[in-house]
Structures are given as structure tokens and as C-alpha cells.
From TrEMBL:
<dbReference type="InterPro" id="IPR029006">
    <property type="entry name" value="ADF-H/Gelsolin-like_dom_sf"/>
</dbReference>
<feature type="domain" description="ADF-H">
    <location>
        <begin position="1"/>
        <end position="127"/>
    </location>
</feature>
<dbReference type="InterPro" id="IPR002108">
    <property type="entry name" value="ADF-H"/>
</dbReference>
<dbReference type="GO" id="GO:0030042">
    <property type="term" value="P:actin filament depolymerization"/>
</dbReference>
<dbReference type="GO" id="GO:0003779">
    <property type="term" value="F:actin binding"/>
</dbReference>
<comment type="similarity">
    <text>Belongs to the actin-binding proteins ADF family.</text>
</comment>
<keyword id="KW-0009">Actin-binding</keyword>
<protein>
    <recommendedName>
        <fullName>ADF-H domain-containing protein</fullName>
    </recommendedName>
</protein>
<dbReference type="Pfam" id="PF00241">
    <property type="entry name" value="Cofilin_ADF"/>
</dbReference>
<dbReference type="GO" id="GO:0015629">
    <property type="term" value="C:actin cytoskeleton"/>
</dbReference>
<dbReference type="InterPro" id="IPR017904">
    <property type="entry name" value="ADF/Cofilin"/>
</dbReference>
Amino acid sequence: MSAAQVPGAEGKRTYRFIIYKIDEKKKMVVVEKVGEPVLNYDDFAASLPANECRYAIFDYDFVTEENCQKSKIFFIAWSPDTSRVRSKMIYASSKDRFKRELDGIQVELQATDPTEVGLDVIRGRAN
């Protein structure tokens, strides 16, 4: 498996988000979509397919109560209830190995529906 650069790693903001999918024929994780730094959470959420599993990296910018600008890198295991059972099993069994290949992950989320990866959840986990 190969991983693209995590957004924000090494001080370079390359992407706001990266969506990965497992190519079942090649048996490897591939980049499906990248979001430019100017995009926001809504663009990211709209990129997650409603009925298919994905891995995602999201670079979340926020301001602390002390008025400091911060950023957290989220790893999201997206596994909707409506996705195929086989797909859910493949993604679940590959997640830890794939995540080890990524540098800079600060928060991990597992989500089965959009409410579990909503902006309020991201915001709450970032602090």
C-alpha cells in the first residue's frame, strides 16, 4: 500500500483532505480524491460516498479559546451501514496497517453515518 503525503505534515499544506479507496483487484489502497487547501469541511463531507467505505485524511483548522490558530490531522475510517458487508470487512482488516504508513495523524474517527463525522464531532475531538 502507498500513502500520499498527509496534509500539513512537515509544515507543508498540500491538501485539505485526501480520500482513499481500496482497489480490490490490485489489493491496495489508492488515492481517490484530493481536496485543495482552499476547500472546507462541507467539500470534504460531500466527497464521502453514501454507500461505500473509504479512508480519509482531513486537515482541520481551528482557533483555541486562547485565540491561537491550530490544526489537527484526522484519520477517518468511513464505513456506512449501507455499504457491502465484504467491503466493511476488507476496510476494517486493512485499517491499522494502512494507518501506520501515514505520518502526522493526530485524531482517529470511525464513522458509519454522516452524524458521526459531522463538523461538531470534528470540532469536539480537535480540542
